[in-house]
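The following record pairs a protein chain with its ligand, flavin-adenine dinucleotide.
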Amino acid sequence: MSAETHAAVPIVPGEPVLPEARMHLVRPKEPVTGRIVETRLCTLGGRKAAGIVRHIAIDVSGTPLAGGFRVGQSFGVVPPGLDDRGKPHALRLYSIASPTFGEDGEGRIVATTVKRTIAEREPQKPDDDPADHRLFLGVASNFLCDLKPGDEVKLTGPQGKRFLLPVDPSMHDYIFLATGTGIAPFRGMVKELLEGPAGPTSSRIHLVMGTPYRTDLLYDEYFRTLAAKHPNFHYHTAISREPGEGAPRGEYVDQYVARHGSVFRPLFRSPRTLVYVCGILGMQFGVYKEIAAEGAADGFLILSDELKAVDPRTWTTEQMKRQIRTTHRFMLEVY
Ligand SMILES: Cc1cc2nc3c(=O)[nH]c(=O)nc-3n(C[C@H](O)[C@H](O)[C@H](O)COP(=O)(O)OP(=O)(O)OC[C@H]3O[C@@H](n4cnc5c(N)ncnc54)[C@H](O)[C@@H]3O)c2cc1C
């Protein structure tokens, strides 16, 4: 692993020093070929889960991607064929679910976590036929999920320079908040922090995984096993469409965090803590409100003067979109 690092020290106490991750080693115009080495359903409910999500591992040996990526980055997939305008398909990004040392310890096998995009067709543009309800299959996710071991895939990347673990992970504690396939980078990060060559970290790690149904939890057994082994690693689940203990109507990730304030409040208020949020677009807004409600906005959020004067519980999504920026202690990857 040859990624370079900043020699700088943090200017603001608590701010992480991030490694300088390499990007675009492989450009979309000249993608490299990887080979599938593993593909399996990774939902707790297997075939009974509501969504279809696969753990897919790809051998990138002999390409610049081998040893060239860092945990938290993404890679691009260029699906074969042409789109409906006759142009080659655009690349799609997938989060790396492996640690920096890869699935193989050498950074040559990189995994991701892919959800099949599958739905009945819905109008997307004003002139789309509202009566058209044929099956809609996302191009890249279904291409990837159909592949078998030995099949080839065109790849680019890596991409991303902010959603990274700090150079010295022991300087921080971690709150990882995921929905759905947003768990991918956290699988890699937790592996890196607890199973890396440097030995397990003693930093505190809290991972909250949110899914609609319990059967949709991803890598659940892996995280439970790790939590049983490492007392500093805590694995939480927030199920939104099923009743659970203490949440009779189900709950989203931010609601889970709010309900367990005694666990999360001290972490939010500690200058050691970094917050990472990955998953469905919009999940960050509930998290912003929760952090502010815990009196910890200063560490993670940069608010406009207008918002500072308003009770966070009344913040609207529009206000938050326009008037909140995040500090370097808050890492966000939503799609
Ligand atoms: C940084 C980043 C990281 C990501 N990481 C992951 C990851 O780890 N795992 C993962 O699974 N995904 C990830 N994604 C999302 C991924 O890039 C793709 O967007 C996703 O897999 C869908 O791609 P697709 O080619 O299958 O679907 P597409 O063929 O691109 O179809 C999706 C598009 O089709 C349209 N559409 C959707 N539903 C319907 C409908 N019912 N009727 C008509 N049209 C519809 C919408 O315009 C939608 O944008 C990530 C995205 C980003 C930006």
